[in-house]
Specification:
This protein is an alpha/beta fold. Helices cover about 35% and strands about 20% of the residues. A hairpin with a 5-residue loop joins strand 5 and strand 6.
Length: about 170
């Protein structure tokens, strides 16, 4: 793997009519955010060849929007739905990333806070990011935020930018 994208699901509705929290859908704003993030990735020349996505409805719908923005089919073979990513902590998310290292060039992992936020912060910290960047990420990881990392041969991640929910790229 040479590239990692960690993304929090886009904005979801407040409650699901049935099925509980796992069945919360994206709001209209969230659907737009996901597509904008996909377009921003495409504009950067980024196209993941593997998507590991929490099985919750809002993360599945986020991936569908990102794929639409990228101009790719969201269906398998590059999609893996993982029930274990639902509200998973950073350690569980990291294990899923590590298991995928040999199976792809570019991985997008779409999950939930606080785990995805903590993993992004941990990777930034491990990679020697500036105090200014760490402070910015420490304050929050809004819905539809994507943190991009370059991955070296030893599996170490280096910061490569943050894409905001409106599709803007903050390098």
């Amino acid at each position: 793997m040479r590239q990692l994208i960690l993304m929090r699901h886009a904005q979801a509705v407040g409650a699901a009519p049935s099925g509980g929290d796992r069945e919360r859908a994206l709001s209209p704003v969230g659907r737009s955010e996901a597509t904008l993030v996909g377009r921003a990735l495409k504009d950067r020349g980024v196209c993941p060849d593997l998507a590991i996505v929490s099985a919750a409805r809002r993360t599945r719908e986020t991936w569908t929007g990102v794929a639409e923005g990228l101009g790719i089919d969201p269906a398998p073979p590059w999609l893996e739905l993982e029930a274990a990513l639902y509200n998973a902590d950073a350690a569980i998310l990291r294990r899923h990333v590590e298991r995928a290292e040999e199976r792809c060039e570019s991985l997008i992992l779409i999950a939930h806070n606080p785990g995805v936020h903590q993993l992004a912060f941990d990777l930034l910290s491990d990679g020697g990011a500036s105090d200014q960047l760490l402070d910015r990420v420490r304050t929050g990881f809004a819905p539809a935020t994507a943190a991009l990392f370059l991955v070296d041969a030893a599996g170490r991640c280096t910061y490569d930018g943050i894409i905001q929910p409106d599709g803007t790229d903050r390098a």
